Amino acid sequence: MPPQPQFPKAVSAVLFTGSGSIYEACRRHLPCRQLSLRRASDAAFRQALEGVEVVVHNAANLHCASVEQAVADNFLPTVRLVNLCLERPHPPRLLYLSSMSILADEGRYRAVEDMDPYAYSKYLGETYCLKSALPEVCCVRFSTLFYEDPRKDGLSRLAADAVQHRRITLLNGGEARRDFLPLDVAAAYLAQLVRRFPRRGALNLAAGQATSFREVSEWLRKRLPGLKVENRPAPNGKPVLHRFSPPPPEWVEPIAFSLEEAVARYLQTLQS
Asked: CA 103, 205, 189 angle in degrees (round to 5)?
């Protein structure tokens, strides 16, 4: 059963742990401050927690070369964060940004041996938060985020290759499908969750609609005449997530968007 929301007074202070594009997107929707948990001392973090009602925790080194690195970069800071929050007489509510990469289906974890280092660190973080003594914690699992950053996701990388090289390569004809969620839409959903906080549990947030890379290539060809599309046969990769990416729960206001228009805007950014 999905976590049920409560409706607190207006949130006045949100502390965002982590850096990068997710924070930049969130600050357009939330009255948030940023703190790097890896760099801050315990004393600095305790001071930063003063007056904070909600902590949005994003420990996300996406490119971990080993389990050891993933645990050090993503999981251990989460343990430290939870313990520092528990020191407070009234701990803040915690939104932990987890990942659908840890799931085998909508409500079941993948076998640990099938997880890559990043997914394993997120699994550890999610289960640790949910089993902690924090009174209010929600783990949010987004579907495939469209970061508009070729270093972070395949859709952005495909668009960047199309603009820079006028050539893209699709695996198996682009048959793979994903439930893509633009970063700004994900940030807007986070803003809703901060204000309508689920009391406890884990929540999958997705668009509820799958798009194939073949469809994306057609959008790119329409906007980039002369684009060459090559095919490379490859064994099937890790399981796709769109099969169990449901629409948002009823108490979350759906956010309508066009992925094709989001890709078109990103192309304009790349070309400017």
From this structure: 150
